[in-house]
Amino acid sequence: MKNTKVSSVGERALISILSEIFKAPDGREKGQEGILIGAGSDDCAVLDLKGEDCLVVTTDMLHRTTDFPEEMTPWQMGWMSAAVNLSDIAAMGAEPIGLVMAIGMPADTEIAFVEALAKGMQACAEFCGTTIIGGDLDTHAELTITGTALGRVKKDQLLLRRGARPGDLVCVTGYTGSAGAALEALQSRKPVSETVLNALFEPVPRTKEARMLAESGAVTSMMDTSDGLAMSLYDFSRQSRVGFRVRENALPILVEVRKFASNPDKLREFALYTGGDFELLITIDPQKIKKVQNICNLVVIGECTKYEAGIVLESPECNLITIEQRGYQQLKAEAVDRSS
Ligand SMILES: Nc1ncnc2c1ncn2[C@@H]1O[C@H](COP(=O)(O)OP(=O)(O)O)[C@@H](O)[C@H]1O
Ligand SMILES: Cc1ncc(C[n+]2csc(CCOP(=O)(O)OP(=O)(O)O)c2C)c(N)n1
Ligand SMILES: [Mg+2]
């Protein structure tokens, strides 16, 4: 790996390299017992609390230039910084129990800006039934916010990326592609509604939905779609050893987003690859689908298949197209092998 730059492998491959370093030679997590899920395999790490509960932990960093479009208000930057972390807690089926927010900023930042930032963070935390319990302040060249979220879930309700089986139904909450359309609209200076813009600026963690899904006993695996539907399907596939067949016609996309996309390729780009929607991607035992149908806004988009069948999109004309392994990746993405 000497002389190879991180930009040539991308975030996913770098996570694999680091996760190996953090594992003991026998493949288990290094350190003390009680680590149920360690680095690199799920939305959160999972720690055994020795009773019937487990603790889930995640951290995510956002930067002014790469994550906050100029049109975002400081309140929205705060909301989003909390939301990206709380979405990972939701993805485990867990209830959030606290957020720690570290903020780095230039010394000439106005106090009013930091207050608005904090109010946005707190609003999102409260929406999810939790609060900010600490943080850190530092001088930094550009606004950088690193959140750490903690959550709790009963061991028998914990939902992992692992657990999907061939024949399970694949579902998503909310709409896909709205954040992607918003980003494109901002970049090309085209108008879109506040609903579409807010999908990007104020993503809503699916905390309540996640808890209801975890309690239903019908869900076999779950994660969030922060990096896009396609990338999430590949992450699922790697952990559960299943393939997927997704029906393009079934993808929940706002009418406005369909109209905004100038052609079917663009629409696929928003719905599958751009990311930023922070919805839940769920697999469900088909025998138990009735248990979840009415508990939240959920759409069946396809089914799990054998791993060897790959990850495919069934077009409205019933053609099968391979879904590509790409999405929102930090450190300049390039595809990594599905088995890695
Ligand atoms: N620097 C790192 N060291 C150890 N684990 C990491 C590192 N970066 C990411 N991970 C782990 O890789 C997995 C995926 O990370 P990431 O893509 O950031 O998740 P998400 O998109 O759900 O926030 C998680 O289990 C995360 O803890
Ligand atoms: C300028 C700009 N580009 C892109 C985005 C969209 N965006 C920001 S974070 C993110 C998804 C990744 O979020 P997260 O899961 O928190 O990051 P990861 O842990 O995967 O690094 C997306 C799609 C944005 N908000 N602003
Ligand atoms: Mg996640």
UniProtKB/TrEMBL annotation:
Q: Which NCBIfam families match?
A: thiL
* Matches recorded under InterPro entries: PurM-like_C_dom, PurM-like_C_sf, PurM-like_N, PurM-like_N_sf, ThiL-like
Keyword set, alphabetical order: ATP-binding, Kinase, Magnesium, Metal-binding, Nucleotide-binding, Thiamine biosynthesis, Transferase
Q: What is this protein's record name?
A: Thiamine-monophosphate kinase
UniProt organism field: Methanosarcina vacuolata Z-761
Q: Which residues does Mg(2+) 3 bind?
A: D43, D88, D224
The PurM-like C-terminal domain is annotated at 165-306
* Residues the entry annotates as binding Mg(2+) 2: D60, D88
What is the name of the gene encoding this protein? thiL
Query: Where along the chain is substrate bound?
Result: D67, Y328
| Residues in PurM-like N-terminal domain copies | 42-153
Q: Where does Mg(2+) 1 bind?
A: T59, D60, D136
Q: Name one Pfam family in it.
A: AIRS_C
EC id? 2.7.4.16
